[in-house]
Amino acid sequence: MTYCLGIRTHQGLVMASDSRTNSGIDQVEVCCKMHNFVVPGERMFTILSSGSLSLTQSVMTRLEQEFREGKGLATAANFYEASRCVGGHVRDVAALDREFLERDKIGFAVNLLIGGQIRGEQPQLYLVYAQGNPLRCTRLSPFLQIGESKYGRPILDRGIRFAETTLEQAAQYALISLDSTMRSNVAVGPPIDLLVYANDDLSVRRYRRLEAADSDLVEIRASWEQGLRKAISTLPQVSFAPPKEQHGVAFTRDP
What we know:
The chain is built from 5 helices and 12 strands. By secondary structure, the chain is α+β, with helices and mostly antiparallel strands. The chain has one domain (3-233): Aminohydrolase, N-terminal nucleophile (Ntn) domain (Glutamine Phosphoribosylpyrophosphate, subunit 1, domain 1, 4-Layer Sandwich), CATH 3.60.20. The strands form 3 sheets. A 5-stranded antiparallel beta sheet has the order 10-1-2-11-12, covered by helices on one side. A 5-stranded antiparallel beta sheet has the order 5-6-7-8-9. It is globular. The relative contact order is 0.19.
């Protein structure tokens, strides 16, 4: 399984992903799901991938070959066109493989997040579905997720605000979201790839790969858990009235 997320704020973007591609009692595999495409000073794209590893590898290979030839993402006129370029390769791979996968009752599973910036535009974040169509992140919904998203979503819903959240805070939210998911689902696991992109960087300047025992990750995890317990201890107590039979409570009566 996989968990990847992108956060967009007024200061830029945070992209983060786990690295576990398979999990079982006798098999755990690790593969980087973060892919960067950079023309320094001109454009920078980060793509996060989830789904069938063979399919996402096919999509990324096609994008990389095209990029090296100075085509595709290297020449997209705007970010929407870039997202459509990615979606086009998803559809091309689907045309090659979907029929044979579905013949054996295997679904065509590919989802991609593409974030970054083309010079002259604001940074953008898109989700590209398995059908190849893109969805743009907005200021009202300033983050996108793919993969095992449910465990890490509550902290993002409650905390991320486009106009208020700093990049440093967004990176902390991303790590807490990923750590919460890893805590609840063994199919998502370290190392974590974390990229912080400031407006107009047009290059990769802040990137970390955090292993499970990374001191920063351990400290953030411990501080979050301690802070959560402390917050719970300060909440108002829940009051209870004597139960009534009509509330559906079962009563035991003396004979």
